[in-house]
Structures are given as structure tokens and as C-alpha cells.
Design brief:
Chains A, B: Residues 7-331 form the DhaK domain. Chains A, B: This is Dihydroxyacetone kinase subunit K. The structure is a homodimer. Chain A has helices spanning 11-22, 85-94, 109-124, 155-167, 173-185, 234-249, 269-286, 316-323, and strands at 27-29, 36-39, 49-56, 73-79, 101-106, 129-134, 187-193, 213-216, 227-230, 256-263, 289-296, 306-313. The first copy, chain A, is an alpha/beta fold. Chain A has two domains: 8-185, Rossmann fold, CATH 3.40.50.10440; 187-323, 2-Layer Sandwich (Hypothetical Protein Tm841, Chain: A,domain 3), CATH 3.30.1180.20. In chain A, helix 4 (155-167) runs antiparallel to helix 5 (173-185) and helix 4 (155-167) crosses helix 8 (316-323). Chain A starts with 10 loop residues before the first helix and ends in a 12-residue tail after the last helix. Chains A and B meet through helix 1, helix 6, helix 7 and strand 11 of A and helix 1, helix 6, helix 7 and strand 11 of B.
Chain lengths: 335, 335
């Protein structure tokens, strides 16, 4: 297993310790649990808290997106395993500024169960909470069953819009929740996987895939996609991904879209930009304007090779919130 | 070959096309050559130009660091091959605001030859130029022969200090050059490689390395390092890297240092932070204060697994320049 680690069972805690040591002005691990990361400074009284969480192994998702204009706190599980109920409770307590707390995370059964249970406990403490799930992976269920979809890289765009809304003076829990709902419902993602990652405690690839084989529609834990077949040229793959996203979202000429081209880990920036060429030209040909774009590693599966493309249909509010400044090592405030 | 590409001979140009399409407010390919990337806006008259260049396959190095507070222009070669003389000339012309142009790049024979020739041509056009070479890889030559060292990830810290200095009103070519010189001479880097990358036009791994084997001191093109041996725990590797850097730089208690923990590509953030834990604790034990830190993918070898650690001995000026704001997709202005 070619990973830079010590005891595999220490992978997550050592990694979080390093994160806090590297960025002490951004992140703080909660006193109550090393698996809860909050902002370095306590939440502003009256601010709606935005909390997320999920398994480790996806950095900078989820934890990395704690920061000003993004998340207030995050609960973290083992690699590819959901956070504990206690840690979800603790993350929400940390994010409680008296104006309620939104739980915004990916649609996975274990995470839902634990976050829901934690939410009930918070309600008993008199803290109002809401839930919005990211369910953007179009390969995981059809458009009529979109609520069953898994949450993947599109979640990051929801972090950004929701986090920006929550920074606005006087924004209410209902308003922040509505931005999250609107963003997640307008987001669609599809991924393509080239290699498996290695979960440290397993010590071997999560799934087998042939030397020239790829999987269209793969999930960020290696969940099966739509088809497996031989590697095709990047333009053909990107073309198919764009076509599937356009068909799913029924986006039409004259609309504006945010684009996220995301590496699943090992795939280099050079190749993401090769894909983005196709995204840009296909959208232009359809008369759809790219209003916002990010290319890089946002939601990974450690060293998995592959990429995903996300589209978020924009309205004026969402576009403004995407462009609002944020402070976090994994977000650049380019124009 | 598991890469997302089309014809391997189009890898670089398609990638640069995507870069420009994704970030049109940051980057512009020069009219005279698609292998020269400049800032979207022409250089401010009277500003010293800072130019770099090198082979492709290291994104975000070199091209990605064109931006406000960083580089003015960059000439790009094929994967792991230096830029042409013509493109070096063109990059310097684009970066000429009438106050001279600094060439700041890594110490590789081909790049030197072409940049020197280009510099002579510019001088004939009446444009004053200077050169500073990054030579930070301590594995590539001993401290007494440090000028023979290769330039690796430490170059990015020099981009940052030099680029920030060049933004200051009235900064002269001599002053900007001096900041670059001071930064490069105070920077030391060591890398460890776990796997090879694949050069697109070669289509196979650049070098063979056993399934449990690693190479300490590897270069960013796979150049041989100090030793090859079985993979060790991350703490042992990071400990050795820190020890080698401290021995080379003779840094002592009471000093301040900037730290860059860099992935060579596939190695995920989780593992970089595991390494950073060790860096932080070893430096603390020595009484050395970390004044600035970045962890992420700054100088890669496409999908190579491995990491490097760079130290830059700080003085007040360099620390301030590192913290100055910059605008570029690959730089976050965290505190």
C-alpha cells in the first residue's frame, strides 16, 4: 500500500491534527471531540450556523470547507464512514449562534440517520435545526427519483452559496435553508473513474478495474456507475458527461450555469483543463453562459484517478453568493 | 495509459486552452504564441515584470502562478521539456512595463540556455533584464555546490515574495531581483517519490519503482535521489526530511521559517497533513517558529505519488511579502 501514513487507524486523527496545526487561524478542533472541526473563532451571535459532515478521505471535502463564508463546523467519520451521532451533536452545538443551525450534507443513509438523531437531540436543547441534502449524482438514480441520488462534488457549490447567505446580517434560518435547498435542487454531477483508491485500514484497492477500463458515473467511494468500458479520448468522455448533464437538467439556451470540474484525486489539473475545454465549447454551442467556474480538487477519493463535472443552474442570487468572498485554504477569491 | 487526454501531442495546448477558458479574468494566452500565458490585463507601466517558464506537467507550476501579486507572464514547453527561445522572448516582451524584467525559474540546463538567449535578445531591444534561479533541491547537490541544485517546489515561495515586491509602487528591477535572490538562497526542499508519473507522449511510466519501494530525494521529473528502499511510516520519512533540511540550512532556535508541504500529484491532502504534524512538532522542539505555511499541490509531476517539504528562512521583509494578497486560482489569501 503506497500511502504516506503511520498506523492506518490513526490516519484520520493525524490528518486532522495536521490540518489544525497548519491553519490555526481557520480551523479549531472542538474541545469535546477531535472529530469535530469548527472555525477558529466562535460563531457570531445571531448568525445561522451551517454544519456539514461525512466520512474522511475526501479532502478538502468536507472539513476543509470550514471557514468564513462557508461552513461553521463539521463532524468527521473514519475514511468513507459517517460521523458519529455525538460528533454531529457537537458540531451543531459549536455552530449554534442562537439563530438556528442548518445541516447540509450528502445523501448517504448512515449520515442521514446520525444527523437526524443528532438534530432531534438539539431540538430538545431548544436549538432550531433544518436539513438540506445534496443529491447531485445523476448516475445514482433517475431524474424522477432524484431525492435518492448520492451527494457528490456539487455539495461544494451549496456550501458556498449557503455559507455566503448565512454571513449576511440578519439572514434567518429559513432564508439560509432556502438557499441551500435551491442550490442543491439545481445541481447535477457526473463522475468518471479510472482507478480505485486505497482505504488505509483495508490496505488494498476498494474495487478492481482493468488496466484500460474506466467507469462512467462512478461514486466518490467507488460506487458503481452507468457503464464500464475501455478508456476513450477525453473529448468523447467529456462530451458524454456534458450531454448527460444537459439532458438531466433540461438546461436551455439563454440560461447561466456554474461549472465545477473536479479531480477525484490523482488526475492532474492538466487533464481537468482538457475536459473543461469541451465543457466550455459545448455550452457555448447551446447558448448557455458559464457564469462561474472552478477547476481543481474539491471532492476527492484520496488517490483515485478520475474526474467529475457539476452544473449548477444559476439565478442572480446564487451567482452573487458564489462570487462572495470566502476565507479558507481551499477557496480562491478569483474574479 | 490511464489519462484523460486526446492525442498526446495536443496535451499541453489543450490544457492551456482550458486554463484560459476557465479563468479569462486571470490568464490570457499571448497573441504571438499559445505557449505564452500572461495576465489578462496588460502590465502596469512602470512595473517590473516577473517572468517564469519551464516544462509542462507541473500544474499549477509554472503557468498557474500568473496573477496579480505573482507572475506577469510564463513561457511553457512540452511536458518536462523547456520552453522555446521564442516563447521566452515573447513572455518577457509581454511582461515589459518599461522598468525591466526579471526571469525567475528553476535551475535546469535547457531552460537556462533558452532564457539566457532570450534575455540577450531582449537586451538588444533595450529592455533591461535580470535572472534568478531557484536551486532549492538539497538532494541534487551538496551545500557547498548549492548553485548546481535543481529547482523544485521552493520556487513557488520565490514567486510569491518576488511578485509581491514587484507590485509595490516604485519597486525597481534591482530591488525585485534582490528579493528573488534572497528568497531562493534561503529556500531548501526535499522530496520523496512513491510512484512514477506517465509522460503523455511516452505513454508509460518514466521510471520503474517496486510496489513497496520509495525514493528519498526524488526530483519532479523523477530524477534520482539519495536512497531507494522500502516504504517507511510517514513519521519516519517526514522526520528524516526535516532533519535533512535543518542540517542543510543550519537553522537554529529563535528563527522563523515558511513551510510548504507539497504533493507531487496523487498523494492526497490527508497524507500531506500527516506529514505536516511532524514538521510542526520537530520545528517546535527546536524552538523554530513557523511564520507561514501552505499545504497542497503546488509543484506536481502530474499523477506521481509523493510529497516534498520546503523551508524558507524568514526575515521580516520576506514574511510580509508572503502574506501580501495575491489573485490567482491556486493561491488562497488565508491569514
Amino acid at each position: 500500500m503506497k500511502k504516506l501514513l503511520n498506523d492506518p487507524s490513526d490516519y484520520v486523527d493525524e490528518s486532522l491534527a495536521g490540518l489544525e496545526l497548519a491553519h490555526p487561524d481557520i480551523y479549531r478542533r472542538a474541545a469535546a471531540s477531535p472529530r469535530v472541526v469548527t472555525r477558529a473563532k466562535p460563531i457570531r451571535p445571531g448568525k445561522v450556523g451551517v454544519v456539514s459532515g461525512g466520512g474522511s478521505g475526501h479532502l478538502p471535502t468536507f472539513t476543509g470547507f470550514v471557514g468564513q463564508g462557508l461552513l461553521d463546523a463539521c463532524s468527521i467519520g473514519n475514511v468513507f464512514a459517517g460521523p458519529s451521532v455525538d460528533d454531529c451533536v457537537e458540531a451543531m452545538r459549536e455552530a449554534n449562534g442562537g439563530a438556528g443551525v442548518l445541516r447540509l450534507y450528502g445523501n448517504y443513509g448512515g449520515d442521514r440517520m446520525n444527523f437526524d438523531m443528532a438534530g432531534e437531540m438539539l431540538e430538545m436543547e431548544g436549538i432550531e435545526t433544518t436539513t438540506v441534502l445534496a443529491a447531485d449524482d445523476i448516475a445514482s438514480a433517475g431524474p424522477d427519483e432524484w431525492r435518492k441520488r448520492r451527494g457528490v462534488a456539487g455539495l461544494i457549490l451549496a456550501y458556498k452559496t449557503t455559507g455566503a447567505k448565512a454571513e449576511q446580517d440578519g439572514a434567518t434560518l429559513a432564508e439560509v435553508t432556502e438557499v441551500a435547498r435551491k442550490t442543491t435542487e439545481a445541481t447535477a454531477t457526473i463522475g468518471v473513474g479510472l482507478t480505485s483508491c486505497i482505504v488505509p485500514e483495508a490496505g488494498k484497492p476498494t474495487f478492481a478495474i482493468g488496466a484500460d477500463e474506466i467507469e462512467m458515473g462512478i461514486g466518490i467511494h467507488g460506487e458503481p456507475g452507468i457503464w464500464r468500458g475501455p478508456l476513450r479520448p477525453a473529448d468523447a468522455l467529456a462530451g458524454e458527461m456534458v450531454e448527460r448533464l444537459l439532458a438531466d437538467t433540461a438546461m436551455a439556451g439563454g440560461e447561466r450555469v456554474a461549472v465545477l470540474v473536479n479531480s477525484l484525486g490523482a488526475t492532474p489539473l492538466e487533464e481537468l483543463y482538457i475536459l473543461h475545454r469541451v465543457v466550455a465549447s459545448e455550452l457555448k454551442a447551446k447558448g448557455i453562459t458559464i457564469g462561474f467556474v472552478r477547476v481543481g480538487r474539491y471532492a476527492t477519493s484520496m488517490e483515485m484517478a478520475g474526474a467529475s463535472i457539476s452544473f449548477l443552474r444559476l439565478d442572480r442570487e446564487l451567482e452573487g453568493l458564489l462570487r462572495a468572498p470566502a476565507t479558507c485554504p481551499f477557496w480562491s477569491n478569483e474574479p
